[in-house]
Protein 1
Amino acid sequence: MYVDLGNALSSVASPGVSRESLDRLDEDVAVAHERIERGRANAEHGYAALNLPGTADPDAIKATVEPVADAEALVIVGIGGSALGAATLADALDSEVDTYVLDNVDPEHTTALLDDLPLSETAINVVSRSGTTAETLANFLVVREAFETAGVDWTERTVVTTGEAGPLRDLAQKHDLPVLKVPDGVPGRFSVLSTVGLAAAAIRGDDLDALLQGGRDVAESLSGSLFEAPAYAYGATTYALDTRGASVNAMMPYAEGLETYAEWYAQLWAESLGKDGLGQTPVRALGATDQHSQLQLYRAGPRNTMATFVRPRERIDRAIPATDVDGLSYLGDATLGELLDAEFEATEASLAAAGRPNVRIEIERVDERGLGQLLYGLEAACVLAGELHGVDTFVQPAVEWGKNAARGLLGAEGKFEEARAVEEKTRLRVE
Ligand SMILES: O=P(O)(O)OC[C@H]1O[C@H](O)[C@H](O)[C@@H](O)[C@@H]1O
Protein backbone atom coordinates (compact mmCIF):
# COMPACT_ATOMS: atom_id res chain seq x y z
CA MET A 1 0.00 0.00 0.00
CA TYR A 2 1.34 3.39 -1.00
CA VAL A 3 0.14 6.74 0.37
CA ASP A 4 0.82 10.17 -1.14
CA LEU A 5 0.14 13.08 1.22
CA GLY A 6 1.34 15.87 -1.10
CA ASN A 7 -2.10 17.35 -1.72
CA ALA A 8 -2.85 17.52 2.02
CA LEU A 9 0.01 19.95 2.65
CA SER A 10 -0.84 23.53 3.55
CA SER A 11 1.29 24.69 0.61
CA VAL A 12 -1.40 23.13 -1.62
CA ALA A 13 -4.65 23.08 0.30
CA SER A 14 -6.75 24.79 2.91
CA PRO A 15 -7.41 23.20 5.28
CA GLY A 16 -3.97 21.69 4.97
CA VAL A 17 -1.17 20.60 7.23
CA SER A 18 2.33 22.07 7.12
CA ARG A 19 5.36 19.85 6.86
CA GLU A 20 6.50 21.21 10.26
CA SER A 21 3.18 20.27 11.85
CA LEU A 22 3.52 16.76 10.48
CA ASP A 23 6.99 16.54 12.02
CA ARG A 24 5.55 17.61 15.39
CA LEU A 25 2.61 15.22 15.01
CA ASP A 26 5.10 12.43 14.44
CA GLU A 27 6.03 12.59 18.13
CA ASP A 28 2.40 11.83 19.02
CA VAL A 29 2.39 9.05 16.44
CA ALA A 30 5.34 7.45 18.23
CA VAL A 31 3.44 7.53 21.54
CA ALA A 32 0.27 6.19 19.91
CA HIS A 33 2.24 3.43 18.22
CA GLU A 34 3.62 2.32 21.59
CA ARG A 35 0.08 2.18 22.97
CA ILE A 36 -1.09 0.18 19.97
CA GLU A 37 1.81 -2.25 20.24
CA ARG A 38 1.12 -2.77 23.94
CA GLY A 39 -2.53 -3.45 23.17
CA ARG A 40 -1.54 -5.93 20.47
CA ALA A 41 0.97 -7.68 22.72
CA ASN A 42 -1.68 -8.14 25.44
CA ALA A 43 -4.41 -8.94 22.89
CA GLU A 44 -6.56 -6.17 24.40
CA HIS A 45 -10.08 -5.65 23.09
CA GLY A 46 -9.89 -4.02 19.66
CA TYR A 47 -6.12 -3.93 19.41
CA ALA A 48 -6.23 -7.72 19.05
CA ALA A 49 -7.78 -7.21 15.61
CA LEU A 50 -4.45 -5.89 14.34
CA ASN A 51 -2.97 -9.32 15.10
CA LEU A 52 -5.39 -11.19 12.82
CA PRO A 53 -3.04 -11.55 9.83
CA GLY A 54 -0.88 -13.69 12.14
CA THR A 55 -3.56 -15.36 14.25
CA ALA A 56 -6.32 -16.25 11.77
CA ASP A 57 -6.30 -19.91 10.77
CA PRO A 58 -7.21 -20.20 7.07
CA ASP A 59 -6.94 -24.00 7.04
CA ALA A 60 -9.40 -24.38 9.92
CA ILE A 61 -11.82 -22.01 8.18
CA LYS A 62 -11.56 -23.93 4.90
CA ALA A 63 -12.11 -27.24 6.72
CA THR A 64 -15.21 -25.92 8.50
CA VAL A 65 -16.88 -24.68 5.31
CA GLU A 66 -16.04 -27.89 3.45
CA PRO A 67 -19.64 -29.26 3.67
CA VAL A 68 -20.84 -26.35 1.47
CA ALA A 69 -17.78 -26.13 -0.76
CA ASP A 70 -19.86 -27.34 -3.72
CA ALA A 71 -22.24 -24.34 -3.53
CA GLU A 72 -23.13 -22.44 -6.69
CA ALA A 73 -24.56 -19.53 -4.71
CA LEU A 74 -23.92 -18.06 -1.28
CA VAL A 75 -26.13 -15.95 0.95
CA ILE A 76 -24.35 -14.05 3.69
CA VAL A 77 -26.79 -13.16 6.47
CA GLY A 78 -25.36 -10.49 8.78
CA ILE A 79 -25.29 -6.73 9.27
CA GLY A 80 -22.71 -4.00 9.86
CA GLY A 81 -19.33 -5.46 10.67
CA SER A 82 -20.74 -8.94 10.27
CA ALA A 83 -21.58 -8.31 6.61
CA LEU A 84 -19.57 -5.45 5.12
CA GLY A 85 -16.16 -7.13 5.19
CA ALA A 86 -17.37 -10.22 3.36
CA ALA A 87 -19.44 -8.02 1.03
CA THR A 88 -16.32 -5.98 0.20
CA LEU A 89 -14.39 -9.10 -0.73
CA ALA A 90 -17.30 -10.46 -2.76
CA ASP A 91 -17.65 -7.18 -4.67
CA ALA A 92 -13.95 -6.98 -5.47
CA LEU A 93 -12.98 -10.57 -6.23
CA ASP A 94 -14.29 -12.78 -9.03
CA SER A 95 -15.78 -16.10 -8.01
CA GLU A 96 -17.89 -18.79 -9.62
CA VAL A 97 -20.10 -18.68 -6.52
CA ASP A 98 -22.80 -16.03 -6.97
CA THR A 99 -22.79 -14.12 -3.70
CA TYR A 100 -25.62 -12.18 -2.09
CA VAL A 101 -25.70 -10.27 1.17
CA LEU A 102 -28.83 -10.02 3.29
CA ASP A 103 -27.99 -7.09 5.54
CA ASN A 104 -31.36 -5.42 5.59
CA VAL A 105 -34.85 -6.54 6.54
CA ASP A 106 -36.69 -5.16 3.55
CA PRO A 107 -39.27 -7.90 2.92
CA GLU A 108 -39.53 -7.19 -0.81
CA HIS A 109 -35.79 -7.55 -1.29
CA THR A 110 -35.52 -10.69 0.83
CA THR A 111 -38.49 -12.31 -0.94
CA ALA A 112 -37.20 -11.46 -4.42
CA LEU A 113 -33.79 -12.91 -3.58
CA LEU A 114 -35.18 -16.13 -2.11
CA ASP A 115 -37.51 -16.59 -5.09
CA ASP A 116 -34.56 -16.44 -7.49
CA LEU A 117 -32.00 -18.58 -5.67
CA PRO A 118 -31.31 -22.23 -6.58
CA LEU A 119 -31.77 -23.19 -2.92
CA SER A 120 -30.48 -26.76 -3.17
CA GLU A 121 -27.19 -25.39 -4.55
CA THR A 122 -27.01 -22.43 -2.16
CA ALA A 123 -24.86 -22.08 0.95
CA ILE A 124 -25.85 -19.87 3.89
CA ASN A 125 -23.28 -18.15 6.09
CA VAL A 126 -25.08 -16.56 9.02
CA VAL A 127 -22.81 -14.20 10.93
CA SER A 128 -23.41 -12.44 14.22
CA ARG A 129 -20.79 -11.88 16.89
CA SER A 130 -23.39 -11.30 19.61
CA GLY A 131 -25.84 -13.81 18.18
CA THR A 132 -28.66 -11.46 19.13
CA THR A 133 -28.90 -8.88 16.34
CA ALA A 134 -32.59 -8.68 15.39
CA GLU A 135 -32.14 -8.08 11.65
CA THR A 136 -29.72 -10.96 11.22
CA LEU A 137 -31.70 -13.45 13.27
CA ALA A 138 -34.98 -12.47 11.61
CA ASN A 139 -33.52 -12.84 8.13
CA PHE A 140 -32.01 -16.19 9.03
CA LEU A 141 -35.38 -17.49 10.26
CA VAL A 142 -36.96 -16.38 6.98
CA VAL A 143 -34.19 -17.98 4.89
CA ARG A 144 -34.48 -21.21 6.88
CA GLU A 145 -38.21 -21.35 6.29
CA ALA A 146 -37.73 -20.80 2.54
CA PHE A 147 -35.36 -23.78 2.44
CA GLU A 148 -37.84 -25.93 4.38
CA THR A 149 -40.70 -24.92 2.08
CA ALA A 150 -38.58 -25.90 -0.93
CA GLY A 151 -37.78 -29.27 0.67
CA VAL A 152 -34.07 -28.46 1.05
CA ASP A 153 -32.37 -29.42 4.31
CA TRP A 154 -30.99 -26.06 5.48
CA THR A 155 -28.91 -27.74 8.16
CA GLU A 156 -26.79 -29.25 5.38
CA ARG A 157 -26.30 -25.85 3.72
CA THR A 158 -25.53 -23.55 6.68
CA VAL A 159 -22.29 -22.41 8.29
CA VAL A 160 -22.55 -20.23 11.40
CA THR A 161 -20.03 -17.61 12.51
CA THR A 162 -20.71 -16.35 16.02
CA GLY A 163 -19.30 -15.68 19.49
CA GLU A 164 -18.67 -18.08 22.33
CA ALA A 165 -22.23 -17.92 23.62
CA GLY A 166 -25.64 -16.56 22.67
CA PRO A 167 -28.85 -17.55 20.90
CA LEU A 168 -27.15 -18.18 17.54
CA ARG A 169 -24.53 -20.41 19.16
CA ASP A 170 -27.36 -22.32 20.91
CA LEU A 171 -29.22 -22.73 17.64
CA ALA A 172 -26.08 -24.01 15.90
CA GLN A 173 -25.51 -26.56 18.66
CA LYS A 174 -29.12 -27.71 18.60
CA HIS A 175 -28.93 -28.46 14.86
CA ASP A 176 -25.32 -29.63 14.88
CA LEU A 177 -24.25 -26.95 12.39
CA PRO A 178 -20.62 -26.20 11.54
CA VAL A 179 -19.60 -23.19 13.62
CA LEU A 180 -16.69 -20.77 13.37
CA LYS A 181 -15.94 -18.71 16.44
CA VAL A 182 -15.51 -14.95 16.22
CA PRO A 183 -12.14 -14.39 17.89
CA ASP A 184 -12.06 -12.63 21.25
CA GLY A 185 -11.23 -8.95 21.29
CA VAL A 186 -12.23 -8.32 17.67
CA PRO A 187 -15.07 -5.79 17.15
CA GLY A 188 -17.24 -6.37 14.07
CA ARG A 189 -15.89 -3.51 11.99
CA PHE A 190 -12.34 -4.80 12.51
CA SER A 191 -13.19 -8.45 11.82
CA VAL A 192 -12.92 -8.88 8.06
CA LEU A 193 -9.63 -10.79 8.30
CA SER A 194 -11.12 -13.23 10.85
CA THR A 195 -13.70 -16.00 10.61
CA VAL A 196 -16.25 -13.20 10.10
CA GLY A 197 -15.03 -12.16 6.65
CA LEU A 198 -13.01 -15.21 5.71
CA ALA A 199 -15.75 -17.87 5.98
CA ALA A 200 -17.63 -16.43 3.02
CA ALA A 201 -14.35 -15.87 1.19
CA ALA A 202 -13.45 -19.54 1.71
CA ILE A 203 -16.83 -20.71 0.38
CA ARG A 204 -16.25 -18.50 -2.67
CA GLY A 205 -12.80 -19.96 -3.24
CA ASP A 206 -10.89 -16.71 -2.61
CA ASP A 207 -7.23 -17.02 -1.64
CA LEU A 208 -7.26 -16.59 2.15
CA ASP A 209 -3.49 -16.84 2.47
CA ALA A 210 -2.98 -13.94 0.05
CA LEU A 211 -5.57 -11.84 1.90
CA LEU A 212 -3.74 -12.41 5.16
CA GLN A 213 -0.39 -11.79 3.45
CA GLY A 214 -1.72 -8.37 2.40
CA GLY A 215 -2.56 -7.68 6.03
CA ARG A 216 0.92 -8.78 7.09
CA ASP A 217 2.53 -6.51 4.48
CA VAL A 218 1.02 -3.48 6.21
CA ALA A 219 1.39 -4.84 9.76
CA GLU A 220 5.11 -5.26 9.22
CA SER A 221 5.44 -1.64 8.12
CA LEU A 222 3.85 -0.21 11.29
CA SER A 223 6.47 1.78 13.18
CA GLY A 224 6.80 4.79 15.42
CA SER A 225 6.92 7.24 12.50
CA LEU A 226 4.21 8.23 10.09
CA PHE A 227 6.90 8.79 7.47
CA GLU A 228 7.73 5.07 7.51
CA ALA A 229 4.28 3.51 7.81
CA PRO A 230 1.77 4.28 5.03
CA ALA A 231 -1.21 3.31 7.21
CA TYR A 232 -0.12 5.70 9.95
CA ALA A 233 0.64 8.37 7.35
CA TYR A 234 -3.00 8.18 6.30
CA GLY A 235 -4.40 8.02 9.84
CA ALA A 236 -2.27 10.92 11.09
CA THR A 237 -3.06 13.10 8.07
CA THR A 238 -6.81 12.58 8.35
CA TYR A 239 -6.52 13.49 12.04
CA ALA A 240 -4.53 16.64 11.21
CA LEU A 241 -6.96 17.69 8.48
CA ASP A 242 -9.99 16.94 10.64
CA THR A 243 -8.70 19.10 13.49
CA ARG A 244 -8.10 21.87 10.93
CA GLY A 245 -11.68 21.78 9.64
CA ALA A 246 -11.98 18.82 7.24
CA SER A 247 -14.84 17.20 9.13
CA VAL A 248 -15.91 15.19 6.07
CA ASN A 249 -13.83 12.50 4.37
CA ALA A 250 -15.04 11.34 0.95
CA MET A 251 -13.66 7.92 0.06
CA MET A 252 -13.49 7.68 -3.72
CA PRO A 253 -11.98 4.50 -5.15
CA TYR A 254 -11.29 4.40 -8.87
CA ALA A 255 -12.28 0.76 -9.36
CA GLU A 256 -15.81 -0.54 -9.68
CA GLY A 257 -14.96 -3.56 -7.51
CA LEU A 258 -14.03 -1.26 -4.61
CA GLU A 259 -17.45 0.39 -4.36
CA THR A 260 -18.35 -1.73 -1.31
CA TYR A 261 -14.92 -1.01 0.20
CA ALA A 262 -16.10 2.58 0.61
CA GLU A 263 -19.15 1.27 2.51
CA TRP A 264 -16.95 -0.84 4.75
CA TYR A 265 -14.72 2.19 5.38
CA ALA A 266 -17.78 4.28 6.27
CA GLN A 267 -18.73 1.96 9.13
CA LEU A 268 -15.13 1.67 10.33
CA TRP A 269 -14.65 5.43 10.40
CA ALA A 270 -18.08 6.41 11.73
CA GLU A 271 -18.46 3.87 14.54
CA SER A 272 -14.85 4.10 15.64
CA LEU A 273 -14.28 7.85 15.64
CA GLY A 274 -17.76 9.35 16.11
CA LYS A 275 -17.62 9.99 19.85
CA ASP A 276 -17.47 12.73 22.45
CA GLY A 277 -18.54 15.33 19.89
CA LEU A 278 -15.63 14.32 17.64
CA GLY A 279 -15.39 12.33 14.44
CA GLN A 280 -14.99 12.75 10.71
CA THR A 281 -18.07 12.08 8.61
CA PRO A 282 -17.35 9.39 6.02
CA VAL A 283 -18.85 9.77 2.56
CA ARG A 284 -19.03 6.98 0.00
CA ALA A 285 -18.11 7.90 -3.53
CA LEU A 286 -16.92 6.10 -6.66
CA GLY A 287 -14.65 7.33 -9.41
CA ALA A 288 -15.23 8.16 -12.17
CA THR A 289 -19.03 7.95 -11.67
CA ASP A 290 -19.28 10.47 -8.85
CA GLN A 291 -17.19 13.04 -10.64
CA HIS A 292 -20.48 13.69 -12.39
CA SER A 293 -22.48 14.12 -9.19
CA GLN A 294 -20.57 14.89 -5.97
CA LEU A 295 -17.41 16.55 -7.26
CA GLN A 296 -18.93 19.99 -7.71
CA LEU A 297 -19.51 20.16 -3.94
CA TYR A 298 -16.04 18.95 -3.02
CA ARG A 299 -14.34 21.51 -5.27
CA ALA A 300 -16.60 24.50 -4.70
CA GLY A 301 -18.64 23.83 -1.57
CA PRO A 302 -17.69 24.52 2.04
CA ARG A 303 -14.05 23.96 2.93
CA ASN A 304 -14.92 21.09 5.26
CA THR A 305 -14.09 18.10 3.07
CA MET A 306 -11.06 16.01 2.23
CA ALA A 307 -11.07 13.36 -0.46
CA THR A 308 -9.36 9.99 -0.30
CA PHE A 309 -8.61 8.46 -3.68
CA VAL A 310 -7.84 4.76 -3.97
CA ARG A 311 -6.57 3.26 -7.15
CA PRO A 312 -4.95 0.07 -8.38
CA ARG A 313 -1.77 0.60 -10.38
CA GLU A 314 -2.65 -2.26 -12.72
CA ARG A 315 -5.94 -3.55 -14.05
CA ILE A 316 -7.20 -5.84 -16.76
CA ASP A 317 -7.75 -3.40 -19.59
CA ARG A 318 -9.92 -3.11 -22.65
CA ALA A 319 -9.34 -1.05 -25.78
CA ILE A 320 -11.87 1.55 -26.86
CA PRO A 321 -12.77 0.77 -30.49
CA ALA A 322 -11.62 3.34 -33.05
CA THR A 323 -14.24 5.67 -34.49
CA ASP A 324 -14.23 8.27 -37.22
CA VAL A 325 -17.02 10.27 -35.57
CA ASP A 326 -15.91 13.90 -35.46
CA GLY A 327 -14.56 14.91 -32.08
CA LEU A 328 -14.39 11.36 -30.71
CA SER A 329 -11.39 9.97 -32.56
CA TYR A 330 -9.09 10.67 -29.57
CA LEU A 331 -10.94 7.94 -27.64
CA GLY A 332 -9.97 5.31 -30.18
CA ASP A 333 -6.31 5.69 -29.28
CA ALA A 334 -7.01 4.87 -25.64
CA THR A 335 -8.20 2.04 -23.42
CA LEU A 336 -10.95 2.19 -20.79
CA GLY A 337 -8.24 1.86 -18.13
CA GLU A 338 -6.31 4.80 -19.58
CA LEU A 339 -9.50 6.85 -19.60
CA LEU A 340 -10.23 5.94 -15.97
CA ASP A 341 -6.65 6.80 -14.97
CA ALA A 342 -6.85 10.12 -16.80
CA GLU A 343 -10.11 10.89 -14.98
CA PHE A 344 -8.43 10.02 -11.69
CA GLU A 345 -5.39 12.24 -12.30
CA ALA A 346 -7.61 15.05 -13.55
CA THR A 347 -9.90 14.93 -10.53
CA GLU A 348 -7.01 14.84 -8.09
CA ALA A 349 -5.40 17.79 -9.83
CA SER A 350 -8.68 19.69 -10.04
CA LEU A 351 -9.18 19.47 -6.28
CA ALA A 352 -5.58 20.49 -5.61
CA ALA A 353 -5.90 23.42 -8.03
CA ALA A 354 -8.89 24.60 -5.99
CA GLY A 355 -6.89 24.18 -2.77
CA ARG A 356 -8.99 21.24 -1.55
CA PRO A 357 -7.09 18.59 0.46
CA ASN A 358 -6.86 15.05 -0.83
CA VAL A 359 -4.80 11.94 -0.24
CA ARG A 360 -3.93 9.21 -2.70
CA ILE A 361 -3.77 5.52 -1.69
CA GLU A 362 -2.54 2.97 -4.22
CA ILE A 363 -2.26 -0.79 -4.37
CA GLU A 364 -0.71 -2.89 -7.11
CA ARG A 365 -4.01 -4.40 -8.21
CA VAL A 366 -7.44 -5.34 -6.91
CA ASP A 367 -6.64 -8.88 -5.84
CA GLU A 368 -6.55 -10.69 -2.51
CA ARG A 369 -3.19 -9.29 -1.48
CA GLY A 370 -4.10 -5.73 -2.45
CA LEU A 371 -7.41 -6.00 -0.59
CA GLY A 372 -5.68 -7.38 2.51
CA GLN A 373 -3.46 -4.29 2.43
CA LEU A 374 -6.36 -1.87 1.95
CA LEU A 375 -8.50 -3.42 4.67
CA TYR A 376 -5.76 -3.81 7.26
CA GLY A 377 -4.24 -0.46 6.28
CA LEU A 378 -7.42 1.50 6.99
CA GLU A 379 -7.98 -0.43 10.24
CA ALA A 380 -4.51 0.55 11.46
CA ALA A 381 -5.06 4.12 10.26
CA CYS A 382 -8.35 4.26 12.14
CA VAL A 383 -6.85 2.91 15.37
CA LEU A 384 -4.07 5.49 15.13
CA ALA A 385 -6.56 8.32 14.45
CA GLY A 386 -8.58 7.15 17.47
CA GLU A 387 -5.48 7.33 19.66
CA LEU A 388 -4.65 10.81 18.41
CA HIS A 389 -8.22 12.01 19.02
CA GLY A 390 -8.26 10.30 22.44
CA VAL A 391 -11.54 8.47 21.81
CA ASP A 392 -12.47 4.89 22.69
CA THR A 393 -12.18 3.49 19.18
CA PHE A 394 -13.61 0.06 19.89
CA VAL A 395 -17.05 0.77 21.38
CA GLN A 396 -20.31 1.94 19.77
CA PRO A 397 -22.72 2.85 22.58
CA ALA A 398 -24.79 5.10 20.33
CA VAL A 399 -25.60 2.17 18.03
CA GLU A 400 -26.45 -0.07 20.97
CA TRP A 401 -29.01 2.51 22.10
CA GLY A 402 -30.98 2.19 18.86
CA LYS A 403 -30.72 -1.60 18.88
CA ASN A 404 -32.23 -1.67 22.38
CA ALA A 405 -35.03 0.70 21.42
CA ALA A 406 -36.00 -1.46 18.42
CA ARG A 407 -35.94 -4.66 20.48
CA GLY A 408 -38.05 -3.01 23.16
CA LEU A 409 -40.61 -1.92 20.57
CA LEU A 410 -40.94 -5.49 19.31
CA GLY A 411 -41.61 -6.66 22.87
CA ALA A 412 -38.35 -8.52 23.47
CA GLU A 413 -37.80 -9.74 27.01
CA GLY A 414 -35.66 -7.52 29.17
CA LYS A 415 -35.62 -3.87 30.12
CA PHE A 416 -35.32 -1.81 26.98
CA GLU A 417 -36.11 1.58 28.43
CA GLU A 418 -34.83 3.22 25.26
CA ALA A 419 -38.13 2.17 23.60
CA ARG A 420 -39.99 4.72 25.70
CA ALA A 421 -38.27 7.53 23.80
CA VAL A 422 -40.31 6.52 20.73
CA GLU A 423 -43.54 7.31 22.57
CA GLU A 424 -42.13 10.55 23.91
CA LYS A 425 -41.20 11.89 20.48
CA THR A 426 -41.80 15.63 20.02
CA ARG A 427 -44.33 16.14 17.23
CA LEU A 428 -45.05 19.08 14.94
CA ARG A 429 -47.22 17.59 12.22
CA VAL A 430 -47.90 19.15 8.82
CA GLU A 431 -50.32 17.09 6.71
O1 LIG B 1 -22.19 -9.25 14.78
P1 LIG B 1 -23.38 -8.68 15.46
O2 LIG B 1 -23.33 -8.90 16.94
O3 LIG B 1 -24.66 -9.20 14.86
O4 LIG B 1 -23.35 -7.14 15.26
C1 LIG B 1 -23.54 -6.53 14.01
C2 LIG B 1 -23.37 -5.03 14.13
O5 LIG B 1 -24.25 -4.60 15.16
C3 LIG B 1 -24.21 -3.24 15.55
O6 LIG B 1 -24.88 -2.47 14.63
C4 LIG B 1 -22.83 -2.76 15.82
O7 LIG B 1 -22.82 -1.36 15.96
C5 LIG B 1 -21.89 -3.14 14.71
O8 LIG B 1 -20.59 -2.78 15.05
C6 LIG B 1 -21.95 -4.63 14.50
O9 LIG B 1 -21.05 -4.95 13.50
Protein 2
Amino acid sequence: MSSISMSATDSQPTPAEYLSRAVALATENVRDAGGPFGAIVVSADGQVFEGVNRVTANLDPSAHAEVTAIRNACQGLGTFDLTGATLYTSCEPCPMCLATSLWARIDRVYFAASRHDAADAGFDDAVFYRYFEGGPEDRAIMPVGQESLTPDERVAPFTEWNANTSRVDY
Ligand SMILES: Nc1nc2[nH]cnc2c(=O)[nH]1
Protein backbone atom coordinates (compact mmCIF):
# COMPACT_ATOMS: atom_id res chain seq x y z
CA MET A 1 0.00 0.00 0.00
CA SER A 2 2.88 2.37 0.76
CA SER A 3 3.98 4.42 -2.20
CA ILE A 4 6.84 6.53 -0.98
CA SER A 5 9.22 7.01 -3.88
CA MET A 6 12.89 6.40 -3.27
CA SER A 7 15.49 8.73 -4.74
CA ALA A 8 17.99 7.64 -7.38
CA THR A 9 20.57 6.98 -4.66
CA ASP A 10 18.06 4.66 -2.93
CA SER A 11 18.46 6.57 0.33
CA GLN A 12 15.76 6.56 3.01
CA PRO A 13 12.80 8.91 2.48
CA THR A 14 13.17 12.22 4.30
CA PRO A 15 10.81 13.26 7.12
CA ALA A 16 9.10 15.63 4.66
CA GLU A 17 8.51 12.73 2.23
CA TYR A 18 6.98 10.57 4.96
CA LEU A 19 4.81 13.50 6.05
CA SER A 20 3.63 14.05 2.47
CA ARG A 21 2.62 10.39 2.35
CA ALA A 22 0.79 10.71 5.70
CA VAL A 23 -1.07 13.77 4.41
CA ALA A 24 -2.01 11.90 1.21
CA LEU A 25 -3.30 8.97 3.31
CA ALA A 26 -5.40 11.43 5.35
CA THR A 27 -6.94 13.00 2.27
CA GLU A 28 -7.67 9.60 0.67
CA ASN A 29 -9.25 8.45 3.93
CA VAL A 30 -11.85 11.22 3.80
CA ARG A 31 -13.01 9.76 0.48
CA ASP A 32 -13.20 6.35 2.24
CA ALA A 33 -15.62 7.61 4.93
CA GLY A 34 -12.85 8.17 7.49
CA GLY A 35 -11.53 11.16 9.40
CA PRO A 36 -8.94 13.46 7.79
CA PHE A 37 -5.91 11.95 9.51
CA GLY A 38 -3.13 9.59 8.38
CA ALA A 39 0.02 8.32 10.08
CA ILE A 40 3.09 6.20 9.43
CA VAL A 41 5.34 4.31 11.85
CA VAL A 42 8.85 3.53 10.63
CA SER A 43 10.45 0.89 12.84
CA ALA A 44 14.05 0.93 14.01
CA ASP A 45 14.98 -1.38 11.11
CA GLY A 46 13.12 0.71 8.52
CA GLN A 47 9.84 -1.21 8.13
CA VAL A 48 6.87 1.02 7.27
CA PHE A 49 3.39 0.68 8.81
CA GLU A 50 0.50 2.96 7.92
CA GLY A 51 -2.72 3.87 9.69
CA VAL A 52 -5.73 6.09 9.06
CA ASN A 53 -8.50 7.42 11.24
CA ARG A 54 -11.44 4.96 11.49
CA VAL A 55 -13.31 6.44 14.47
CA THR A 56 -16.72 6.79 12.87
CA ALA A 57 -16.25 3.94 10.38
CA ASN A 58 -15.42 1.42 13.16
CA LEU A 59 -17.41 3.05 15.98
CA ASP A 60 -14.12 3.27 17.89
CA PRO A 61 -13.17 6.60 19.54
CA SER A 62 -9.60 5.33 19.96
CA ALA A 63 -9.13 4.59 16.24
CA HIS A 64 -7.11 7.72 15.55
CA ALA A 65 -4.64 7.47 12.69
CA GLU A 66 -1.62 7.37 15.00
CA VAL A 67 -3.09 4.67 17.25
CA THR A 68 -4.06 2.63 14.18
CA ALA A 69 -0.53 2.92 12.76
CA ILE A 70 0.98 1.96 16.13
CA ARG A 71 -1.37 -1.04 16.39
CA ASN A 72 -0.43 -2.11 12.85
CA ALA A 73 3.27 -1.77 13.65
CA CYS A 74 2.97 -3.74 16.89
CA GLN A 75 0.93 -6.51 15.22
CA GLY A 76 3.27 -6.61 12.22
CA LEU A 77 6.41 -6.73 14.31
CA GLY A 78 4.98 -8.94 17.08
CA THR A 79 5.88 -6.57 19.90
CA PHE A 80 4.41 -3.92 22.20
CA ASP A 81 7.73 -2.04 22.28
CA LEU A 82 8.52 0.25 19.33
CA THR A 83 11.80 1.57 20.72
CA GLY A 84 13.78 3.15 17.88
CA ALA A 85 10.67 3.84 15.77
CA THR A 86 9.57 7.20 14.36
CA LEU A 87 5.95 8.35 14.00
CA TYR A 88 5.01 10.61 11.08
CA THR A 89 1.51 12.03 11.22
CA SER A 90 -0.59 14.34 9.09
CA CYS A 91 -1.61 16.29 12.20
CA GLU A 92 -0.13 16.98 15.63
CA PRO A 93 -0.95 13.97 17.83
CA CYS A 94 -3.79 14.54 20.29
CA PRO A 95 -3.08 13.76 23.99
CA MET A 96 -4.31 10.15 23.55
CA CYS A 97 -2.02 9.56 20.55
CA LEU A 98 0.89 11.22 22.32
CA ALA A 99 0.36 9.00 25.36
CA THR A 100 0.04 5.91 23.14
CA SER A 101 3.33 6.90 21.47
CA LEU A 102 4.97 7.21 24.88
CA TRP A 103 3.64 3.82 25.97
CA ALA A 104 4.87 2.31 22.70
CA ARG A 105 8.31 3.82 23.45
CA ILE A 106 8.42 5.57 20.09
CA ASP A 107 11.62 7.62 19.79
CA ARG A 108 10.50 10.60 17.74
CA VAL A 109 7.36 12.22 16.27
CA TYR A 110 7.01 14.48 13.22
CA PHE A 111 3.71 16.16 12.34
CA ALA A 112 2.38 18.33 9.50
CA ALA A 113 -0.78 20.25 10.50
CA SER A 114 -1.13 21.63 14.04
CA ARG A 115 -3.83 21.16 16.70
CA HIS A 116 -5.04 24.63 15.68
CA ASP A 117 -5.46 23.53 12.06
CA ALA A 118 -7.50 20.59 13.40
CA ALA A 119 -9.61 23.02 15.48
CA ASP A 120 -10.33 25.04 12.33
CA ALA A 121 -11.79 21.84 10.87
CA GLY A 122 -13.97 21.27 13.97
CA PHE A 123 -11.81 18.79 15.91
CA ASP A 124 -11.28 19.09 19.68
CA ASP A 125 -7.54 18.34 19.82
CA ALA A 126 -6.65 21.83 21.16
CA VAL A 127 -9.55 21.71 23.65
CA PHE A 128 -8.27 18.42 25.04
CA TYR A 129 -4.70 19.75 25.32
CA ARG A 130 -6.08 22.58 27.45
CA TYR A 131 -7.95 20.01 29.58
CA PHE A 132 -4.63 18.34 30.47
CA GLU A 133 -2.66 21.56 30.81
CA GLY A 134 -5.15 23.37 33.06
CA GLY A 135 -6.12 22.97 36.70
CA PRO A 136 -9.28 21.36 38.10
CA GLU A 137 -11.37 24.38 37.11
CA ASP A 138 -10.59 23.59 33.46
CA ARG A 139 -11.77 19.99 33.83
CA ALA A 140 -15.47 20.87 33.67
CA ILE A 141 -16.07 18.93 30.45
CA MET A 142 -15.25 15.66 32.25
CA PRO A 143 -14.59 15.84 35.99
CA VAL A 144 -12.09 13.28 37.28
CA GLY A 145 -11.87 12.49 41.00
CA GLN A 146 -10.35 9.90 43.33
CA GLU A 147 -12.83 8.05 45.55
CA SER A 148 -12.02 6.98 49.11
CA LEU A 149 -11.44 3.23 49.17
CA THR A 150 -9.17 1.75 51.85
CA PRO A 151 -5.45 1.86 50.94
CA ASP A 152 -5.32 -1.97 50.82
CA GLU A 153 -8.26 -2.21 48.43
CA ARG A 154 -7.01 0.66 46.30
CA VAL A 155 -3.59 -0.86 45.62
CA ALA A 156 -4.70 -4.54 45.58
CA PRO A 157 -4.15 -4.93 41.78
CA PHE A 158 -0.61 -3.55 42.12
CA THR A 159 0.10 -5.82 45.08
CA GLU A 160 -1.02 -8.79 42.95
CA TRP A 161 1.09 -7.52 40.02
CA ASN A 162 4.25 -7.14 42.12
CA ALA A 163 3.77 -10.66 43.54
CA ASN A 164 3.33 -12.17 40.08
CA THR A 165 6.74 -13.55 39.10
CA SER A 166 5.57 -14.38 35.55
CA ARG A 167 4.41 -10.84 34.77
CA VAL A 168 5.61 -9.12 31.57
CA ASP A 169 6.75 -5.60 32.43
CA TYR A 170 6.03 -2.80 29.98
N1 LIG B 1 -3.79 13.77 15.31
C1 LIG B 1 -5.09 13.38 15.25
N2 LIG B 1 -6.02 14.19 15.74
C2 LIG B 1 -7.31 13.75 15.68
N3 LIG B 1 -8.44 14.36 16.11
C3 LIG B 1 -9.47 13.54 15.83
N4 LIG B 1 -9.02 12.40 15.24
C4 LIG B 1 -7.67 12.52 15.12
C5 LIG B 1 -6.64 11.68 14.60
O1 LIG B 1 -6.85 10.57 14.08
N5 LIG B 1 -5.37 12.16 14.69
